[in-house]
Amino acid sequence: MKKIGPLMILEGPNKSKVPFSRSLYIDSSEKVLIDTGAEPTLLKTIQKEKGIHYVVNTHYHPDHTCHNYLFPQAEKWINPIEMETVSSIEKVAEQNGIYQEWGSVGVEKWVKTIPNEWIESLSIIDKSYEYEKTYCFDGVNVVFLHTPGHTKGFSCPYFPDLGVVYTGDYDMTTFGPWYNGTDGDIDEFISSGKRLLTIEADTYITGHQKGIYSNKEFKEAMTQFLSIIETRDEKIKQSIKNGLTFEELTKIGIFYPPRTLDNMLLYTWERCGIRKHLKRLGYTVQDNEIKSFVVN
Ligand SMILES: [Zn+2]
Q1: Number of H helices and number of E strands within the chain?
Q2: What DSSP string runs through 36-63?
Q3: What separation in Å is there between the alpha carbon of 285 and the centre of ligand 1?
Q4: How far is the CA of 34 from the centre of ligand 1 (A)?
Q5: What is the Å distance from ligand 1's center to 150 Cα?
Q6: Which residue intervals define the domain Metallo-beta-lactamase in the entry (predicted)?
Q7: Do 169 and 238 share a structural domain?
Q8: 65 CA distance to ligand 1 centroid (A)?
Q9: What is the pLDDT of residue 74?
Q10: Which of 58, 121, 159, 161 is a Cys-bridge partner for 69, taking CB atoms 3.0 to 4.6 Å apart?
Q11: Distance from residue 63's CA to the centre of ligand 1 (Å)
């Protein structure tokens, strides 16, 4: 297990790949677990041997909150914007584009597919933290930077004295930026990504797969990561030129491989993500036709 001063980096199964994530643990006299997507047996061992007083979630997505339910005794915090979201599973469905794409019938259908532990993990969150304020856990300072884009409330915990930031879903994966919920925003994603490059940090810890980057490596990786947004734009523009309808465009795999799109949630995010690109490129969807905003 990797350690940086009082911070322990806890891996999730399969290199912390979705539906799990990397967690951070502050090992001071106040024991803090940041996100709970790590290996559950590892989390339980830490709980038993050292204890967990606080669980702090960067955002509400299940790959970062799924094991909250293992710590009923800990006080659980989430960002102030998403305190509201976690109050009902219907609100979570709304933020994930399910209501937008399929209406209340779709929401009902989706709710039935969710594991009980996910719902429990969200329903037991106690309170919200403030953005941009310095919290001190027995001498370990942490600031929850508000970095919207991935979700509206998404935060990146930054440890100014250690020069460490947990970048969560700024994960630098080859999949590219994820802003596919109705609460995601492409422009905000880009601004927040750029903001992460301006803070004073030497160590960037991502939430999934690749892991730890130096400042220089993270800068290079961010350029590449954000450029995937333009690649998606280009692919969509080309498809419109080729005369594809909206429904056809949602089947070719702008985000997810086409073979995975029979999964309802992935297909919902595919549609939702494409709508964001269309809007950004100046298009609107009318009865399945893609039309330009620009009047000639
Ligand atoms: Zn997420």
Answers
A1: 11, 15
A2: S-S-HHHHHHHHHHT--SEEE-SSS-HH
A3: 27
A4: 14
A5: 7
A6: 20-208
A7: no
A8: 10
A9: 98
A10: 121
A11: 7
- Whether residue 143 is found in the same domain as residue 19: yes
Protein residues with C-beta less than 5 angstroms from the ion ligand 1? 61, 169
Q: Count of domains in the chain?
A: 2
Q: Is 212 exposed, middle or buried (0-12, 13-18, 19+ CB in 10 A)?
A: middle
Distance 96 CA to ligand 1 centre (A): 11
Do 155 and 38 lie in one domain? The reply is yes
Quote the distance between the C-alpha of residue 14 and its chain's center. Answer: 18
18 Cβ partners below 8 Å, 6+ apart? 63, 208
| Assigned token pair, 132 | 């941009």
- Whether residue 75 sits in one domain with residue 126: yes
Verify that 35 and 169 share a domain, yes or no: yes
Q: 37 C-alpha to center of ligand 1: Å?
A: 11
- For residues 249 and 255, the answer to whether their CB atoms sit within 8 Å is no
| Co-location of 256 and 206 in the same domain | no
Q: Give the pair of three-digit tokens for residue 5.
A: 């001063």
Which pLDDT score, from 0 to 100, does residue 177 have? 98
- State in Å: Cα 251 to ligand 1 middle: 23
pLDDT of residue 295: 58
Domain ranges, residue 62:
2-223
- Spacing, Cα 252 to ligand 1 middle (Å): 24
User: Both 213 and 260 in a single domain?
Assistant: no
108 C-alpha vs ligand 1 centroid, how far in Å?
A: 22
- Report yes or no: 276 and 189 within 8 Å, Cβ to Cβ: no
pLDDT at 100: 94
Q: Let me know: does 57 contact 127? Beta carbons within 8 Å.
A: no
